[in-house]
Amino acid sequence: METSAPGFFGNSGNGRKWMEGDELTMARKDCCSGYSENISEYSEYIKEVIGQPISELETPALMVDLDIMEANMEKMMAFLKKSGAGVGIRPHAKTHKTPQIALAQMAKGALGICCAKVGEAEAMAEGGLPDILIANQVVGHRKIKRLAALSKKTNLKVAVDTKENLQDISRESAKQGGKVGIVIEVEVGNKRGGVRTVEEAVEIAKLASTLPGVWYAGVMGYEGFAVFMPDFEARKAAANGAYDILLSFRDAIEEKAGLDSEIVSAAGTGTFQFAGRRQGLTDIEAGSFIFMDVRYGDTAGVGFRHSLAVVATITSHPEPDLYICDAGLKSMSREFGIISTLPSYGVKVSNMSEEHVSLRPSDNPHQLPGFKELNDKYAKPAKPLGIGDKVLLIPSHCCTTVNLHDIIYAVRNGKIEDVWKVTGRGRFV
Fold it and tell me: Using only C-alpha atoms, what is the Rg of the chain?
């Protein structure tokens, strides 16, 4: 069988390459060392808060507990190793949009990263990421020009589902002397992009193996319709049904086009445990597991811990049973439902507007198993809440919340260890 992967980054045993040892250490150092000092608009403030407790933060502020986040990464890697199915992880950077976190994931053993847009991929490549899959179609001559240019800086792959898009990418990439990996998106039940027939996939794969400036990399299919299914067994069945479809396309391409698929990519945080045990898959595209949010916390069997929160300050206590915070829709998203707070505060979120969150006392605050570590570390008030107190709020959706912030405060043992610019924020094109 053929494989047309370029040797730009070299290959490991299965035709894949990721940074290791000194190479990754230096890339991570170059990206991260003194990074906080380069956020010029915040530089003086950052110097003041590094090493300080989160009570010193100007709010609303986005924070991540490093110990919990790193434990989530390690848990994912341990699961994949134990499963023995040969599946790796290519985490989705749309969750964090931050090169430091992506490099930390690679240092833990990730194969590379996924991005949603060319701009997001550019941000990750600028931060030193060596292997990137844009898990969406890139259409339009300006975007394709940027895509081709980016392929000369990093091992770049992109999803396609039409011959016309493939030909456009090939033409521009060849013109610039680039090499773009082609991953054929397969519709596996999500009712979004992706080829609908095996015949389409085989034609695209054959074309990708012959055109200049591109190479055939594999197939992908996202079972997003299944990731939040409340019933664990129903979710498992739906996910495995999607993988059946994806693997049938891989097999057809091998049989009819004579091409091996280096990448067979699927899954999200809600289905990682099924994909990670499925022989034939190579990559899991989960992203939210490092942070978690209320929606995934409510999804049975996910099992990761909450590391991300928006720190808010109580700015008003106008009634005995009402506290007002200085966070709101402009600092955290709620498209998956109401946000939450930590149970030891003894309050529940009762309302949310652009700039305000209302909290009311509750004998039955929202509790999720994944809250425990954050709650134990940060939610033990010695006295009833009052004006000026800081509280941690948990977003309903971590990915869209991160996109609302310029910076993430990296916290360890309750103190601010570093400050990271959300480099991919707002890069929608």
Answer: 22
